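Question (not urgent): is this output format expected?
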Amino acid sequence: MAITRRDFLNGVAVTIAAGLTPLEWVRAAGKGNAFIDGNYYPPALTGLRGNHPGSFEMAHALGREHKHF
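Got this back:
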């Protein structure tokens, strides 16, 4: 299977863009997860508490019993 001209030019463009990226940006990209430790749990940030009585009734009514509200 031959490489198309478009694929070749896209690869060249990505290579040039990566080479022209400032070194400060590359160094800063590696520090993105520095704040994450063992206590990081995204559902806790939005107030989600997990499963509770009544959490599945709507899904079961729609999926199994074909009820629409």
